Amino acid sequence: AWRTLRERSGRLRSGRTVLGALVDPLGLFKDSPIMAVAETDERALAATRQLIRLLSRQPLGDQLAALSPREVQEVAAIVARKLWERRAGLLLTGNRFATTVLKQTLERLDQPTRQLPQGSWQQRAGAKEEGRKVQ
């Protein structure tokens, strides 16, 4: 979807897409392995789509829409109370999630899954470290 949006936004004289230039004006992430879609990303997206399909088949949405404003307020209060009671668990879950995201990001940066384009800033930086010249 992101690729399609970028292509539809048009291109600048430099060859970059308009959307790409707006989101990443310096081009720091253009060639980054973080931005490449990996197999695990595809599996996560497929699982999310399946979960959304399953949840959309449940009549819960219709039941919630049928609630009166007073009932919605009562449900919100119950949910807020439960969240407050379980805040330590929520904090722990949030920490686990953040740790997992950071680990996956580090793994992607340590093991790039694609070739860097000729003349990319990462390729130039690597060449400087090795003492060779890249054009």
Order of helices and strands: HHHHHHH
> What's the tally of helices?
7
Integer-rounded radius of gyration: 23 Å
The low-pLDDT segments are: none
Shape, please? Answer: extended
From the N-terminal CA to the C-terminal CA, the straight-line distance is: 33 Å
Give the averaged pLDDT, no decimals: 78
Bin the helical content: 55-70%
User: Largest sheet at a glance?
Assistant: none
Structural class: mainly alpha
Description:
With 135 residues, the chain is mainly α. Helix content is 65%, strand content 0%. The protein has 7 helices and no strands. The chain has helices at 2-8, 18-23, 39-56, 60-65, 69-85, 87-110, 121-130. The mean pLDDT is 78.
Blueprint of the fold:
Blueprint: H1 2-8, H2 18-23, H3 39-56, H4 60-65, H5 69-85, H6 87-110, H7 121-130
Tag the structure with descriptive keywords.
0% strand; mainly alpha; 7 helices; 135 residues; extended
Would you summarize the structure shown here?
This protein is 65% helix and 0% strand. The chain is an all-alpha fold and 135 residues long. It is extended and about 55 Å long.
